Structures are given as C-alpha cells and as structure tokens.
Sequence to fold (888 residues):
Amino acid sequence: MLQRIAVGQARFNLPGLTADMRGAAIGRQLVVRFAAVDRLVSFLRLLSAEQSLDDLQPGFRIVYARGGAGTREAIVLMPAAQALGDAVAHAARLAGGQVFTGAAKHFVQFRETRAPLGYDVDTLSDGAGDLIFYGVEETVPYRIESELPLGNLLLRLSLVRLHGRKVKAPEGAIYVTARRGLGTVVAGLLHRAGGYLREPAEAMRATAALCESATPSAFSSGASFWIFRIERLPARLYQLLSTTPGLELYLPVTDNVAVAVGYRHPIHLEACRGTFAADRLYLFASRGVTEVAPLPAFAAIEDLIRIRAPSPEIVDRREAVPAGRPDLAVALRLEQAGDARQPVATLIPWGQVVWLQRLVYALPPTALRAYRVVLLKRGVLLRAAEMLDGIPFGTLYQLGAPEVLVPLGMQIRPAASPQVLAERLGATGGALVLFPERNAPPVRILPEAIVPFDRRLLVEIEPALANLEAFGRTEREPDDPVEIENEPLGPMPLWGLARPR
Amino acid sequence: MARRFVAEFLLPLVRGGALRVGRPLGPRAVARVTELVARASRDPTDDEAEPIAMLGAGRRAVAGRHLPAVAAPPLDEVTVRLGAALHDLLALAHPDLVGPGLARRQEQIALAAFELASVGSPSSAREAVNRHSLLARIPEIVRVDRTVRFWLGHRTFVGRTPPGRIMALPSLRRVRVDRASRSWLREIGIPAVGRRAFLALNVASPLGEAIDPLRLDPPLGWGRILPVLRFPLVARAVAGAAVEIGVDRAGDALAGALYRFAGMHDPPFGLPASEESVAFALRFLAHLVWLDVLYGVDPELARAARPAQAGPELGLELAVVITAAARTRRSLVWPDDVPATGDLGQAFGARLDALGARASAAGSPRLAAALSIADFAAAPVTRPVAL
Fold:
C-alpha cells in the first residue's frame, strides 16, 4: 500500500528515499520497467536524444528479470541525478514503461500527476527477490535472470532505413569501404578527382587503410577490405560512389562510429560514446556491424596509388630535352647568376682523367667515401654529397635545383620552384640531371649509373684465397630459404607431453 | 622423430631447406636425441655423424660472424632443447591440430616448449654465440601455403607439398598451383598461448634480438639482452650492428625499450630493472653516440639531406634519453678517461649540445620521463617489490 508524500515530509519508510529541493521524494537509483524489448529500445532512443547515456555511467544496467507472476520483463537501472528524474519519466511514459525510484532492492513508484511529490510505502515487503517494486496497484518482487550490456544491445539492433530522403553530399568526413580488388581503383579515382579539385578551400582529402577481418581459424585468411576516409567529398563523386556496387558509404556519428548511408541507428549513438571501445572503429551496416580493431592507420591516398614503372626506353646517359606543353610552355635556359654557390660536382674531360688518377692518392678518405662518379661520353662526372673539395680542375657545377647540376655561376630560367624543376626534368628517385654547358641540352643520368667513387676507383683485385680453415670461415652463407614442411602427426601426437595444470 | 631431428630440423634451420615439423617433442624425446648425438660422437660411422658434422660446420660459420676463430659449437643438451622448443612452437600452427580441444592441445604443446626453452641466459660470450648460431635464422623461416586448383575444385595445403596424385595430369585436369609464402615470425605470428615459450627462447638466446633492435615481435626487451651485453665481445658486435642499421634508427628503438624496461612494463623474463642495469643501458646508448661521433656523418647534414616527406624524424628518442642522462650525471655518458678539451671530447660535447636542443624542442613530458629514468640510474628512489 502506497501513501502520497505530503509537503514538508522529510522522513520516509522506504530506505534510501530522500526529499529533493522541491520536497519531492527521490532515491539513489531510478528504475524503469518494460514489458517488451521494443519498448526498451524506444525508451533508450528517446532518452539518448535528450541525455548522454555516458553521463549515467557507471551504474547504468539493463537486466532481464522474472516477476512474481511469471512475466519476464526488461528493467533499466540508473543512478538518479538531480534533473534526470523528469526526463526519464517523460521518456518512459512515451515508451510505455513504468518508473520507480529507491535504493538497493526496494523501489517505489516515481511521482506522477496523482502524487506530485511521489510515494512512500507503509511497510516494507519481506518477499524474496532481487528487486521489489512497490506500485499503486501491486507490489511485485523480481528475480534477475540475466544482464544485457548496453554495448551488446547497440551492436545487435537492426538499422532503420531512411525512406524518401534525397541523397545529399555530407558536409564533413565520410568513410567508404571497398572490396580488396576495388581498393586501388578507388584510390586512383580519388587521387585523380582530388587533382582536379585542387582549390585551396575545397580541396578533397582522402586517406585509406587496408583492414582484415578476424578469422576463427589460424589456417584461413579473413576477408580483407579497404577503408577510405574522405573529407569534403564533392557531390558528383558522392553520387558515383554511393551507386557503385562493391562500395559502401558510412557517415561518422562519433570519432570511431559510423553508420551506413541511407540508414540510421535506432538509438542516438552520439550519446553512447563511452560504450564503444576507443581503440576500435565500428561500422554499422544493414547486414551487421564491422569492428575494425585496432583503429586503422590511414595513409594518404597519394602514397597508395599505383606507380607505373619507368619506361624501358629511357636508358643510361641518353640525352633528352624536356618537352613542354605546346600552348604555354617555354624552354628552359641557363643565364648568368649574380653569385656563385658552392660547387658540388665537376666534369673532368677524359684527357684530364690521368690527373684525377694521380690526385686520388692524396685525397682524404672522407672525399673518397663521399664522392660518387659517373662515366659519360664527355668525361668523368664527380659528384660530392655536400661540397666538392680537393679537385682543382674540370668544369665545376652547382645545384640549380635538387639533383639538377648547372655550371658554376649559372642559373635556370624561368625561375620556377626547384621542386617543380626537378620533377619536370626527371631528377627524382636518385636520378641526376646535368646541364653540361650553357647552350647544351640537359642529360639525365639514371641512379644505376652513379656509383661510389672508391668502388669505381679500384682495379679488379683478386687476391689468392687463403686457407680459411683456421678462422672457421670455410662455410659460405647459406642461401636456401628456411621453409616449414609439415609432416603428418600420426596418432596421439601429444603422447609423452605433460598436461598443463 | 628423434632420429631424424638433427638431419631434418636442426640442419635445415642453420643451412636452409625444408624444416620438417612433426610430432611435438618433450623432455623424453630430447633425451633420446642427446643420447643419439653422444653415440654418434663416439662412432664416426654412425648415420647421425654426418649431419652432426655438417650442422657443426654451419653453426661455426654463423658464429664466426660474431666471434673470430671460434670452434664449431657443440651439439649439447641445451642446444637440442632450444631446437626442440622452436620445433614445438612451430608445431602450434600445425594443420593437423584441428577440431575440438584445440586450445587445450596447444596449451600442452606450449607448456612443453616453455619447459624446454627455460634454460636461462647464457653465461659467457661463447655460449651466447653458440646458441645464436642455431637460432639465427628464425626471422627467415617461411611457410608456403599452396592452393591447388583443378577442374573439380581446389585443395589447400598449409606448409605441405601437394601429393603427386593431386598434381597428376596437369593439362587434362587444368591443375594450377597458387603459392603464398608467409614469414612465420612477422606474418603468421606465434599464437598467444606460445608467447611465454617464445620469450623464454629469447631469454636463452638473446643475441638475435640484440643485433636486430628493430624487430617488432617480441618488442626489444633490455631485460633479455642485458645479460649478453655484459660480455665485451658481444657488446661490440651488437654496437656494430646498431651502427650498421644507423645509430639514430637503432638508438630510437633501444631508447624506446628503455622506457618499458625502467618502467617495469616488460614481461617478467630476463633481468629485472635495477639502478645498475639501467645505468648500464644508458652507458651503452651513449657508447653508440660516441661511435657515431667517431665514424658517422654529421647528423645536421644528414637531416638536411633527408627528403621532407620521409616519415618521422629519426633519433629523437635517443636524443631525449642521452640528454637526460647527461644532465643528471655526466659519468653516465662520458667515460672518465676521455678529456673534454681534446678534439674528440669537443666533438662529443657539440653533439650533446645538438641532442639537447632537439630534446628541448621535442617537449617536456618525454624529457621528464627520461630524466626520471636517469635519476633512477643515478640514485634510485624506488625499488621493485616482489609481490
């Protein structure tokens, strides 16, 4: 039997019940009872729209309990915060649930219009049960049967399809998953599209990672897929990606949770951030949830696109003139510079090579180790890592751009960015470009032709083999791979091994 | 298996070839192998004598890379136990171990491997090199999985050669074989149940871990490598390997491992963290910097020559740790017999200044942690407590 609480009443029969600032009774916990799970889901959806469920932790529990009449009901227990009671009661009423408050195992019905300050009990029930609910009509003991973690519930709920929504490109980031075979194609597409849209304010940025799903067996590989994170995706590409088979688009809800485009989760996931492990990425799709653990390490799309192998027609020491576009391009040329930089290379004509041969005996070991050499038709090109020192003859060269050599005191015009010049001239990947003279076309030298000076310097030396038996070095390095060859284990393979305690 | 263990497992492990993995081995099998080896050493005409001699020659070649003029390592009981432990670790992923109770069986095999591998750290440089001569090629072990496709379907052979009947009539049956070679250590990985045994194996033979500080799994542990770094010959070999890798790169890995070691976050294998061992580790890192000053290129020039997009900057962790050690106690990084006024001393002082500037620019939290490590090495305020 319940009694309404009077104004100013400060003492209550139900343990744990106290009066708040308005005089209304509230316990340390709030409990909401639902007859069916769908009502529970509705309640969580309504509550998560107004209140972050993370703020209710710890202490937020969902349990299944069997009542005295044999009914199995879903019960939500949560700590009672100051302003939470009204929000919970409002959501529970909308969802068809009943709210109680109290502490430990005794809970009395929460305040309502008939009792604005709440209820108290006449006497406590001594019935057996984990929870005892004192209602206006009846007092019901409940026995808890199982617990349903909120995270499990969120992962098990089916997504709700959004009907009649016009597809609109998202404002922020978007995730796209692609089957493994499509990954490089999508990466190439995004890279090309990013190139066309290179406006400073609207530049699309895409990163990607390769993920492998977990497999229950150690002998079968799991399905793998690519995941792309794209920021500022243009509407045209959004249409294309969303209609391409094999690709799935996800809109981020939180930092590590995303829901498939065209669907929404029944519960506001942004209110449940703490439920999801921070080191995983959760992708909610209509067919289920994909957990990517650990968080994928995204790499820039520029680093992932397939690079074509250099054309086999480019051979060593072939002279080539960099061709420009016919409409606007102008030819590069060398002009006198105001000041000369440090020389980094010298081209020694073949006639003066004998001087070099005499000089190497006097060169310090650092020079011999740091210099590299290329044998050209015009002569021997000696390239220093930093500054050429100790070679007083030959044509000296300085850097006009990274790995682009121009005669000392000259500069390349037009004065384009050094990186652009190096890229256009092909001075990348270890290759070297040499402007031999002011009016001579440049020469591209492939990295294979550039060898350390001391290695090229020495004549072929074939000392006689000593008897190495005494030094224990008669065996050559074994080159065969060490390859596992599994043999049949036979019957009772663990016979004779101790059993773990 | 005991009879063929030397010829078909230990010998390919050193010289390359098919590493035959069969029934897991226990202490009794190891005793039988040891007995066979002893019998073969007495009787040169024994069948086992030839593979044992070839194994000794192969191990001598490996050991010769680290200790000059070393004799052929003996095939003693410890060697057989380490080889058998590795065999059992490989057997954990055997394709015949399937079905219900797999976890229990794997646990049983892992326990046997752990007991076999628990021989402790080597007690001398020679012993460390001898053990390493057997296990040096662990990172090179691969497993080739073959999928044979034919007109009626396909069959997969995990680490096995397909039998002849599967490969018969290749044209008529449209037989095609797809091979996938996977590194055992890096790609297949050791099951979690065998992790203790593998760590014990690394404690027993830590030289492979020491000369490859960039190894990802298991992450470098100072507690395991310190017992062998105390031998000057081995320490020189390890320092030489670090210089070959690059002092910045190797130093970062070693310095990063020092945080785990000094913070007592390493697995409970090997030497525990003490003031003396942490100080030794700091001195070893300083030794690498001395070698770099003596034989390396100018770090500023090397850093300037580095492409802008070439990944994270190297040497930062090393700079922070060395700076912390130098600020806490100079003797942690500076030998007593090297004067600060000489050319070498001035060069090292300039390097310390450069490292200090980098460490200060890197931010205070990391430097504060490194300072606490150096404080611990100089004057420990806490000691590990056995619970």
Q: What stands out?
A: Chain A touches chain B through 32 residues (CB under 8 Å).
